[in-house]
Amino acid sequence: MQSRVGVIVGSLRQAAFTRQLARALPSLAPPSLTLVEIGIGDLPLYNEDLETAAPPAAWTAFRNAVAACDAILFVTPEYNRSIPGALKNALDVGSRPWGKSVWNDKPGAIISLTPGALGAMAANHHLRQVLVALNLAAMPHPEAYIPAAATLFDEEGALKNAQTRQFLSDFMRSFATWAGRWRTHG
């Protein structure tokens, strides 16, 4: 069964390691997954006062893009032991208006990445806490905390580390199984 996977990158920076990693994932994913990036950089901050009959166009486009996906893959850095503000804003925008959350009942997965040694583990776990509140089922295993981001890519931004490529290929196969199972039984 084919699954359309929305990829949401937590960093807004074009040359971010998380964005480079997200660009490598389609070549590592099994054919049953079609990955499409869903941008978050143009989303106005969530403000319930703007939740009218005509909310900001960027909110509507974002909500429609997420709703059109069967599963969501988050690729995030860690900012101050948490997720970036832009990512939290996207989660908030997608969860509103009340009762119409685009996240509800979707399977998901998280890959966190950092130049440091811990692989953005705090951001990964904090994001999992938020996803529970949104009723988005994050794949419990394997977990993906990717350290030493500065050593993983070549000058063109391609993933050069063979061990990381293999891990992510295995991760994406597990995610395909998770997304397929969730669609069948979720």
Describe this structure as you would to a colleague.
By secondary structure, the protein is α/β, with parallel strands linked by helices. The protein contains five helices and six strands. It has helices at 17-28, 57-67, 85-94, 121-134, 162-185; strands at residues 3-9, 33-37, 71-76, 107-113, 137-138, 144-146. Strands 1, 2, 3, 4, 5 and 6 form a six-stranded parallel sheet that branches. Strand 4 (107-113), helix 4 and strand 5 form a beta-alpha-beta unit. It is globular, with a radius of gyration of 16 Å. It starts with a strand and ends with a helix.
Architecture blueprint of SSEs:
Blueprint: E1 3-9, H1 17-28, E2 33-37, H2 57-67, E3 71-76, H3 85-94, E4 107-113, H4 121-134, E5 137-138, E6 144-146, H5 162-185
Parallel strand pairs: 1-2, 1-3, 3-4, 4-5, 4-6
From the structure above, extract its key features.
186 residues, alpha/beta, 6-stranded parallel β-sheet, 5 helices, 6 strands, 38% helix
